[in-house]
């Protein structure tokens, strides 16, 4: 499915979404573009991940006619209290829909959710070879603030990791 006519609906994830969340994440593992992770997750693992999440760290689903197109999540940046105002954003999109605006809409919705939850900064980690993701970050007002060189392996090859951030000035107190 690469074209649709209905608007993308963004909503909070529910536990019954665990199977599709796992499926889309596993596409990211298989495609080797969005994560250095080389282990697939099960629907049961994603179910437990969903039920254990504090409300402050939402998971949002992008769907059309009850078909999941992608998902985004916030996670703690650090367990240290001094970083409570920072969260890490992750986005995974159904492989056939990458480049069709789903990630952009999920990113905007998650930036709004982070603002409402009082975060003053979001951070992201992007495999440096993933030019579409880096361009999306730039388009959405994120700044690239550094590169971790040879940070992770994809197969037998080392890859750099781009560090990006999105500041929410109205929450900087």
Unreliable segments of 5+ consecutive residues:
none
Please indicate the count of domains: 1
Question: How many strand segments?
Answer: 7
Percent strand equals 25-35%
List key phrases describing it:
single chain, 173 residues, alpha+beta, Aminopeptidase, 4 helices, 34% strand
Provide a descriptive summary of the structure in words.
The protein has 173 residues and is an alpha+beta fold. It has one domain (9-171): Gcn5-related N-acetyltransferase (GNAT) (Aminopeptidase), CATH 3.40.630.30. The protein has helices at residues 18-31, 43-51, 102-116, 131-139; strands at 9-12, 59-64, 67-76, 86-93, 121-127, 143-154, 157-167. Strands 1-2-3-4-5-7-6 form a 7-stranded mixed beta sheet. A hairpin with a 2-residue loop joins strand 2 (59-64) and strand 3. The relative contact order is 0.16.
Topology:
Elements: E1 9-12, H1 18-31, H2 43-51, E2 59-64, E3 67-76, E4 86-93, H3 102-116, E5 121-127, H4 131-139, E6 143-154, E7 157-167
Parallel strand pairs: 4-5
Antiparallel strand pairs: 1-2, 2-3, 3-4, 5-7, 6-7
Helix pairs in contact: 1-2
Short description:
With 173 residues, this protein is α+β, with helices and mostly antiparallel strands. It contains 4 helices and 7 strands, in the order E-H-H-E-E-E-H-E-H-E-E. Helix 1 (18-31) crosses helix 2 (43-51).
């Amino acid at each position: 499915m690469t074209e649709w006519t209905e608007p993308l609906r963004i909503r909070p994830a529910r536990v019954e979404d665990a199977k599709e969340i796992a499926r889309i994440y596993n596409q990211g593992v298989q495609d080797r573009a969005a994560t250095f992770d080389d282990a697939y997750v099960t629907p049961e693992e994603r179910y437990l991940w969903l039920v254990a999440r504090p409300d402050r760290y939402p998971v949002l689903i992008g769907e059309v006619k009850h078909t999941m197109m992608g998902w985004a999540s916030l996670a703690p940046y650090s367990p240290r209290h001094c970083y409570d105002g920072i969260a890490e954003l992750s986005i995974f999109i159904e492989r056939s829909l990458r480049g069709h605006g789903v990630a952009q809409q999920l990113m905007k919705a998650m930036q709004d959710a982070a603002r409402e939850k009082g975060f003053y900064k979001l951070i992201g980690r992007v495999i440096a070879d993933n030019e579409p993701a880096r361009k999306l970050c730039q388009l959405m007002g994120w700044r690239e603030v550094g590169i971790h060189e040879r940070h992770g392996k994809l197969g037998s090859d080392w890859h750099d990791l781009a560090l990006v951030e999105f500041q929410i000035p109205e929450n900087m107190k």
